[in-house]
Design a protein that fits this description.
Blueprint lengths: L32 H5 L3 E2 L1 H4 L4 E2 L4 E2 L3 E2 L7 H13 L9 E10 L4 E10 L8
Antiparallel strand pairs: 1-4, 2-3, 5-6
């Protein structure tokens, strides 16, 4: 497992399964646009994001993004497909989960960011 650095980060677009050419069959009855987009690199400028400072290292704001939108059933189907195509694999160095919640009782917005770092040792911070 290679250590993460700004110079060695992956910025190539892929198709599901981390292939550069289509070699998997997708069910045409389902909408796989979000799954396909998850294998496409998105820059930090396109995401309007800043670098994330972790315990192990700092990660630039770009990467491979899955947007959790749609019904519960659609999200479960898409996450199952991402698991089938090994979207998170041994090459994954960090995962960020960002979401906002709103409590109308007290008119409170809360924005949460979780950062999971995958270390070369196999541990997760």
């Amino acid at each position: 497992m290679e250590d993460y650095s700004v110079l060695t980060r992956e910025k190539v677009n892929y198709v599901p399964g981390w292939n550069q050419t289509m070699s998997v069959s997708l069910d045409p009855a389902l909408n796989y646009s979000l799954v396909n987009d998850a294998f496409t690199y998105t820059s930090s400028d396109d995401l309007d994001s800043l670098p994330y400072m972790g315990t192990y290292t700092t990660y630039l704001g770009g990467g491979f993004v899955y947007k959790m939108i749609g019904s519960d059933g659609e999200m479960i189907t898409n996450l199952t497909e991402l698991q089938r195509f090994h979207w998170i694999d041994r090459q994954t160095r960090a995962i960020t989960l960002e979401f906002s919640v709103y409590n109308p009782n007290v008119t409170l917005f809360c924005h949460v960011i979780y950062l999971l770092e995958f270390l070369p040792s196999g541990n997760i911070l």
